[in-house]
Fold:
Amino acid sequence: MLSIQDIHVKYGAIRAVMGISFEVKAGEIVALIGANGAGKTTSLRSISGLVKPEQGKIFYNDIELTSMPAHKIVEMGISQVPEGRRVFPLMSVLENLEMGAFTRKDKNKIKDDMKKIFQRFPRLEERKNQLAGTLSGGEQQMLAIGRALMSNPKLLLMDEPSMGLAPMLVQEIFKIIREINSEGTTILLVEQNARMALSIANRAYVLETGQVAISGEAKEMAENKEVQKAYLGL
Amino acid sequence: MDFTSNFIVQLINGIALGSTYALIALGYTMVYGIIMLINFAHGEIYMVGAFVGLALVTIFKVHIIIAFLGAMLFCMLMAVSIEIIAYRPLRRSKRLAALISAIGISIILSNLVNLLVGPKPQTFPSIEKILFEIKSFDLIAGAQINTLQILLIIVSAILMIGLQYIVKRTKVGKAMRATSQDYDTAALMGINVNRIISYTFAIGSALAGAGGVLVGIYFGVVKYNMGMLPGMKAFTAAVLGGIGSIPGAMFGGIILGVIEMMTVAIGFSSYRDAIAFGILILVLLIKPTGLFGKQIFKKV
Structure:
């Protein structure tokens, strides 16, 4: 479904990604794990078109995304839950969700999807007229996920969805990720919480200083001595 | 004239003047809100709007309403082109670069009009010949409001209500707010950020063009450098209301207009500009976010 081929990304003089390749197959949950600065977020930003790799290619169902503008990539069926949630703080919960459906024109279907989101996250419905900036961290994360789902994506990119949340909420968010996946959305998950990520992913890639260090089935990775030592604290 | 009626007369003058400041201030604040640029060419767009209105009425002999809409349309297209030529290539540069580019555009526009029309003030045909006779009404004994003032205030109010509707209710308006709050995330929603920036320039400049024609009708003269001072005053109004805030620009404009006319009323008319810019300095010193400044939410 998604194929990243040897991408290199620079921010000014800083080389954030130095030749990363990986694949996501339809229906999978794939996790990218690794320390700060390993190139996880940059990889997601290149897929979404927010940064342009200076080398390498990105294909989605054999269509090249590499030089496509960000807003066209959303229309292709790829949406992202960005790092730090990034809800629009001065817009209401409802307006944030509407923005998620920006590329869609099927008004009735949008309404149905909004109802589904409210069923999944009843807290958002209670607060639908409240400004998103006034929500708690967990609620903002739910809103960011709901907003990304409003575009009806086939591939959902999630950047650190558990960051800064209480352990109870982390469990809850991972349960929701699994549900979204079982309803047919493919997921590419970036996480620092490697243990949780490996517990729900089919496959995983470990990134180190802008390159793929280890890759394989998530279960095997969880038992890999190197991974355990470096990322699971065992 | 007693004190109360004098006060009311100057209040009405102030609101009328302030409405034109508000119309111009909205363009400053909208553009700043979305790309953090003080568009110093904005006053000149207002000036060009006035001249386009004048040309349409005197040379092309169209109805004043057509001229009004024509000036708005012309300013829209001009501003969108300016943004593409002069600001977009500098989007990722330092903010000062785009600011200097804006000052350059401002100088080009005023000199271009000077070259085409000459430095002499041009008279705008009297509204009595083209639309209606000016009548005055007594509000209370001695304090009058005339139909021209009523027209100016009502047209400005309609434009501002229209703007509020666009920004609050329409898809484009919501996309504008989203883009002004978070550029990258707006793109992740599938919003074509460049197009939304163009719309913002278009709407803000249409309001400035409308303001230009209204001022032409109200004061009866237009001049190539007429954009300079009202442009600065409108900028002051935008800062007073809180740069980036649309209601702020509306109230800031009206408050500034009223303060200016009150200064005239108490006999300090030669200090009106000093007072207006004194307010700018005070706001920047004491409350740089202005009256309606954007609240900034910290990430939880």
